[in-house]
Write a structure and sequence with these properties.
This protein is mainly α and about 350 residues long. The chain is built from 17 helices and five strands. The protein has a three-stranded mixed sheet with strand order 1-4-5. A two-stranded parallel ribbon has the order 2-3.
């Protein structure tokens, strides 16, 4: 997967990038198989090693399990690419690999593929919020809530809930039913089939090793990966200067480029997160495999320099809660309150 494009010929409009990025869309079958092996084999090996380490030290086992959370994040990214049809050319192969990985990631593949497709088709559209996104209210919507409604929204947006409890609820509870797609039997089949495979796997673990492998190996790996996944998704779209519009003025490619971050991570974190931090490119052209995103940045300096968000800068995103339609940016609760007081 190679392509070049002179920097001085970079497209000026977001939609013009589509033709450029189409050059990177064909996956390398060998590379995809290698990336799958480099993620799945260490994951299974660390799982086995952490289980064995229980006989030596619970703390060693716990450390190995937490490390394995990184490999589970990477497997989730591969499942994500399968959902976009960007990992293997054969759609059926991609789908069945995605379904198998969904048992490890506790994510029913066909349900998530549909909700994630909705997310891609509506990100940044104020009139199409509600599926596959982080709930975000406008300043006016928040002010119109009752006192209890405001308290509930504040609790939802609090970092302890958003990055602590919410990931557990999402992957352990919410993913067990096809929320938003409850009227379709196909999605029920996806959810229940995944649930059955998970239940059988966990039952086998308990039968062979009791509860300790569940508590020290399974849960820490899943919970760390879940929190990391939610954080990555959050900072990819919850930027101060996001690009959100009402439906009549919303434009897909503008929202993709200007409403998604380029999260600049350390190389090791970039590897474990499958380059998903290069999210503005991913939203512009989702058919590019995760390993091709770095090639895009290498060849296209304009995209490499766009929407950059450092780790330090990303921490401030957790303090942003409300979209100000007039100022076209996210505000904290405190900022929104100060602005309201200044108008009085």
């Amino acid at each position: 997967m190679t392509a070049t494009h002179p920097p001085d010929d970079a497209p000026k409009q977001p939609q013009d990038w589509v033709k450029v990025l189409a050059r990177y869309r064909e996956p390398d079958q060998g590379r995809s198989a290698l990336e799958l092996g480099l993620s799945l084999v260490p994951f299974l090996a660390l799982w086995a090693l952490a289980w064995w380490a229980l006989s030596v030290s619970v703390w060693i086992s716990l450390a190995l399990s937490l490390l394995n959370g990184g490999f589970l994040v990477r497997l989730f990214i591969i499942q994500h690419d399968c959902c976009h049809g960007s990992f293997f050319r054969n759609r059926h192969l991609s789908d069945w690999i995605g379904r198998a990985l969904g048992v490890l990631t506790l994510t029913p593949y066909d349900v998530w593929r549909r909700t994630h497709s909705i997310h891609h088709s509506a990100a940044g559209n104020l009139d199409r919020r509600g599926i596959g996104d982080v709930t975000t209210l406008t300043v006016n919507e928040y002010r119109a809530l009752s006192r209890f409604g405001r308290l509930r929204y504040r609790m939802y947006r609090h970092p302890l809930f958003m990055f602590g409890l919410a990931p557990t609820l999402l992957f352990m509870v919410q993913n067990r039913v096809p929320l938003g797609l409850m009227d379709k039997s196909f999605f029920w089949s996806s959810a229940m089939g995944t649930n059955l495979a998970i239940a059988l796997s966990l039952g086998l673990i308990v039968w062979l090793g009791g509860l300790l492998p569940m508590l020290v190996v399974f849960l820490p790996t899943v919970l760390l990966a879940a929190s990391a996944a939610v954080w990555l998704f959050y900072v990819q779209h919850q930027l101060e200067a996001m690009h959100w519009d009402q439906d009549e003025t919303w434009q897909l490619h503008d929202a993709a480029l200007h409403g998604s971050s380029h999260y600049v991570l350390l190389p090791v974190l970039r590897w474990f997160s499958g380059n998903i931090g290069i999210h503005h490119v991913h939203h512009l052209y989702s058919r590019i495999a995760f390993y091709g995103l770095t090639e895009v940045l290498r060849d296209q300096p304009a995209l490499a320099d766009s929407q950059r968000l450092t780790i330090r800068e990303s921490l401030a995103c957790a303090r942003l809660h409300l979209w100000d339609e007039g100022r076209k940016r996210l505000l904290s609760f405190a900022e929104a309150r100060r602005l309201a007081s200044a108008r009085v």
